[in-house]
Amino acid sequence: MPVSFDLTGKTAIVTGANTGLGQAIAVALAGAGADVALVGRSSMAETEAAVSAAGGRSLSIRADLSTLEPIDRVIKETLAWTGRADILVNNAGIIRRADAIDFTEADWDAVMDVNLKTVFFLSQAFARQLITGGKSGKIINIASLLSFQGGIRIPSYTASKSGLAGLTRLLACEWAGKGINVNAIAPGYFSTNNTEALRNDPDRNAAILGRIPAGHWGEPEELGGAAVFLASPASDYIHGIVLPVDGGWLAR
Ligand code: NAP
């Protein structure tokens, strides 16, 4: 059998798909043949157009993922659309910046809720419909370099992304035998809303750029290949990894 990266006939759910990395992942999966459910709290118009331009089909589902309330609806609406949900990309995430000494409970809870709690319970709902239907599937969590490193001024973000790496491994151990691959991608420094504050700070920007062997901030499209790989049959024997896509940052 030739190696396959083909996602034709599969349905993917991508959270936080209106912008940034989620948008690029949705477009890459559509380009590989998947139908894509775009989940988020903002208009998906830009992503809908980009998916369509890539020759794909999309369904937009409005959902605020700061609570567990929309989870069942996200799965139900996806199943009502194509009758299947094969791939889940847990991409939606937020970051709050402040010195650890001043960090508030509100900034702790907000980040943990979106980046970790909702990810777990959406993955659980996604896996239940696969297991009940006797089907296989793929979960891809969007982790971070802060899954490996400490960072500064982002305590809840680092805790959530380090926790997400652990959760990826636990779910892989529990669900690999049920035909569900659970893996993560750890993006390095990409040009999105998430990193705008860093890019606008000349000192931080220069320090970050100076440490990236590839010599440039990642462009969202540069993440697409890893997402397609982990969503496709080519990665069927890969379970529980956190794959850095970081221009060489961690190799430094
Ligand atoms: P971004 O442009 O800020 O995108 C974040 C996405 O998450 C947006 O679509 C946002 O929707 C969505 N989101 C946030 N809170 C939500 C909520 N309560 N309900 C529904 N959707 C919500 O940043 P990004 O860089 O593309 O981030 C995507 C993922 O990559 C995040 O998990 C982030 O931690 C991770 N990451 C990014 C980098 C980087 O360098 N950029 C590096 C490592 C990891 P709205 O637009 O409506 O807010």
TrEMBL record:
Q: Which domain of life is it from?
A: Bacteria
**Gene3D superfamilies annotated for this entry?**
NAD(P)-binding Rossmann-like Domain
Ketoreductase domain location is 10-211
Q: Which UniProt keywords apply?
A: Oxidoreductase
GO terms for molecular function, please? 2-deoxy-D-gluconate 3-dehydrogenase activity; NAD binding
Cite the InterPro entries for this sequence.
Answer: 2-deoxy-D-gluc_3_DH, KR_dom, NAD(P)-bd_dom_sf, Sc_DH/Rdtase_CS, SDR_fam
Q: Which NCBIfam families match?
A: kduD
- What family does the database annotate? Belongs to the short-chain dehydrogenases/reductases (SDR) family.
Q: What is this protein called?
A: 2-deoxy-D-gluconate 3-dehydrogenase
Q: Which organism is it from?
A: Xaviernesmea oryzae
